[in-house]
């Protein structure tokens, strides 16, 4: 008898080491406000655990996911798409094709942005070469370079 794929969120790893929001901010390079925003915006996989004092406690799984979200956002993935990706992962196995399509679409956009950035960099490097040549000529003439 085959078992149906799980639709529950992936299980959390047992990890005794947790971080306060300040510690998670240090570990991820994000501000506490950004971490709270990620939580409110539905970008995290699980609700962040709370200590008895109600302070947030981030575990290794939380930090891993936050770093991934940071990379997705850093490459221009819209919040809407990150939220969709997180929802797919939370839903569990069975939607890998949708996750793949979402990430492949994002990769295509990132590659286009990279090419545009490379073209812009080439234009900047050309102008630098022009001004370097100009500075060398002025120095050779005995005129201080601007």
Features:
single chain, 146 residues, mainly alpha, two-stranded antiparallel ribbon, 5 helices, disordered N terminus
Write a short abstract of this structure.
Helix content is 62%, strand content 3%. It is mainly α and 146 residues long.
The DSSP helix count reads 5
SSE string, helix = H, strand = E?
HHEEHHH
Mean pLDDT: 88
DSSP strand (E) fraction? under 5%
* Largest sheet composition: 2 strands, antiparallel
What can you tell me about this protein's structure?
The chain is an all-alpha fold and 146 residues long. 62% of the residues lie in helices and 3% in strands. The protein is built from five helices and two strands, in the order H-H-E-E-H-H-H. The chain has helices at 21-28, 32-40, 60-74, 79-91, 96-141, and strands at residues 49-50, 56-57. It has a two-stranded antiparallel ribbon. A hairpin with a 5-residue loop joins strand 1 (49-50) and strand 2. Helix 4 packs antiparallel against helix 5 (96-141).
List the helices and strands and how they pair.
Elements: H1 21-28, H2 32-40, E1 49-50, E2 56-57, H3 60-74, H4 79-91, H5 96-141
Antiparallel strand pairs: 1-2
